[in-house]
Amino acid sequence: MTEHADQGYLLDNRQSEAGIRFGALAELFDPVTFRHVDRLGIGPGMRCWEVGAGGPSVPLGLAERVGPGGAVLATDIDVSWTEKLTGGVIEVRAHDVAADPPPPGGFDLVHARLVLVHVPDRAEALRRMVQALRPGGWLLLEDADPALQPLLCPDESGPEQRLANRLRSGFRTLMAGRGADLGYGRTLPRVLREAGLDEVQADAYFPITSPACTVLEAATVRQIRGRLVAAGIATDEEVDQHLANVATGTLDLATAPLISAWGRRR
User: Fold this and answer.
1) pLDDT score, position 255
2) Is 80 exposed, middle or buried (CB count within 10 Å of its CB: 0-12, 13-18, 19+)?
3) What is residue 35's predicted lDDT score, i.e. its pLDDT?
4) Other CB atoms closer than 10 Å to residue 105's CB: what's the count?
5) How much is the pTM?
6) What residues does each domain of the chain span?
7) Of 75, 139, 189, 216, which has the most beta carbons under 10 Å away?
8) 22 phi, psi to nearest 5 deg
9) Looking at the domain covering 17-264, what would its CATH class be?
10) CA atoms within 13 A of residue 187's CA, in its CB half-sphere
11) Which residues pair with 254 in a beta bridge?
């Protein structure tokens, strides 16, 4: 989740708010991720590569499934939030999925969540992930598609919601300026087929009004408030007002749809 943290990723995961964001993302999306992991039959003795791991929750969940006879490799450009996981079946390694050679050995599962949308050379990153699969191994990609649903508050019923949506629009403008593809999620089934994978399927998850959405929004805005102000998207006063509105817990906050797609190497 933090591939290209310095080169392209807008959110600096060296900031303390990053840990809060990882926790909220885990609460929102881990049930979705592991529903797919379990459906694909990932279990004891298998080898998994978690790309752009970011936080610890997915590597730990994979380790539970593969057991002592398996292996989980968690990689990221910035491993500060996962390095303490090293030991047992988990190995943590600094790695740039779009620039470094894929790890050797062949994997039963390669998984990346909220990674490729931020990687400028996403086609090369995808090629390297496919290359790392053993025959019969699964690639599971999960990426947001903000262009499908761009609003933080889909029910824009008052000034609080309008302010929230204006800040969210500005945030996504900043993301696009750093190479993020805000419509990438919807392309995942096609790009997996074009990569030569079989049994390609996909689905989408779209949370609204989860407490984790509120936590995620507050942490995200605190991380990027300086960029929002510097770009003229909002004043400091407007950012403070938005954070106060979020803290009430009465805004029906949403996230972009998370598209999950999977395919199998021949």
Assistant:
1) 95
2) middle
3) 98
4) 11
5) 0.93
6) 17-264
7) 139
8) -60, -40
9) alpha beta
10) 14
11) 208
Q: Which long-range contacts (CB under 8 A, 24 or more apart) does 41-45 make?
A: 42/66, 42/108, 42/109, 42/138, 43/67, 44/69, 44/70, 45/69, 45/70
**Total Cβ atoms within 10 A of residue 258:** 22
The residues of the chain scoring below 50 in pLDDT are 1-8
Task: Give the model's pLDDT for residue 97.
Answer: 96
Name the pairing type of β-strands 133-144 and 107-113: parallel
Question: Which pLDDT does position 179 carry in this prediction?
Answer: 86
Which pLDDT belongs to residue 9? 55
Written as one string, the DSSP assignment of the chain is --TTTTTT-SS-TTSTHHHHHHHHHHHHHHHHHHHHHHHTT--TT-EEEEET--SSHHHHHHHHHH-TTSEEEEEES--TTTGGG-BTTEEEEE--TTTSPPPSS-EEEEEEES-GGG-TTHHHHHHHHHHTEEEEEEEEEEEE-TTTS--S-SS--SHHHHHHHHHHHHHHHHHHHTT--TT-GGGHHHHHHHTT-EEEEEEEE--BS-HHHHHHHHHHHHHHHHHHHHTTS--HHHHHHHHHHHHTT-S--B---EEEEEEE--
Model pLDDT, residue 12: 66
Quick one: which of 118, 171, 124, 144 has its CA closest to 9? 118
